[in-house]
Amino acid sequence: MPTGTGVVAAPVSYEVDGKQYVSVAVGWGGVYGLAARHTDRAGPGTVYTFAIGGTARPPAFVEYKLNALLQGVPYDKTQVEAGTALYVSNCAFCHGVPAVDRGGNIPNLGYSTPATIANLDKFVLGGTLTDRGMPDFSGKLSPAEVEKIKAFIQGTADAVRPK
Questions:
Q1: First and final CA of the chain: distance in angstroms?
Q2: Domain segments of the chain: what residues?
Q3: What backbone torsions phi and psi does residue 75 show, to the nearest 5 degrees?
Q4: N or C: at which end does the chain have fewer Cβ atoms within 10 angstroms?
């Protein structure tokens, strides 16, 4: 039976009131599932339970909606190289390579809105998204370094954009 996402645990079979069931956990979870995905379908962690001889239809798969490739954020091309090192050291583990990976439950920044990247300092410095798991890089990154990261993100999107 297609689950639309990765099966992440062995199935278990059990009986309740004389009816046999098989359950299996699916969905790319854990740290890997945050940063990567291997399907075009959105699938939060779920447990599918099948009744032997059952006839119920599975839920419909929901397609991921990937934003357009980032475009239009002004940047200094001379800062892309320095931004690369900063991005790889601080951002790549969670956000992947901008505009190359598709992201997972954490967005790939190469498909962010221009407003998000233009205001990147508000997300990176000051803890705006700490309640959603985003670290506060205050004291670790400077505003000038965030500008270099922005240059890398937009520069990478520009580099992979079909001509």
A1: 41
A2: 12-63, 77-160
A3: -155, 160
A4: C
- Single-letter residue type at 73: V
Identity (one letter) of the amino acid at 151? A
Query: 93-146: per-residue pLDDT in tens?
Result: 888 899 887 776 688 899 999 999 999 999 999 888 999 889 999 999 999 999
SS3 132: helix
Residues shown for the chain = 163
Q: What is the Cα–Cα distance from 24 to 14, expressed in whole angstroms? A: 12
- Distance of alpha carbon 70 from alpha carbon 142, whole angstroms: 23
- Buried residues in 34-63 as b, exposed as e (16+ CB within 10 A): bbbbebeeebeeeebebeeeeeeeeeeeee
Cα(91)–Cα(98) distance, rounded to whole angstroms? 10
List, in sequence order, every residue forming a beta bridge with 42; answer none if it has no partner. Answer: 62
Token pair belonging to 64 = 């991921």
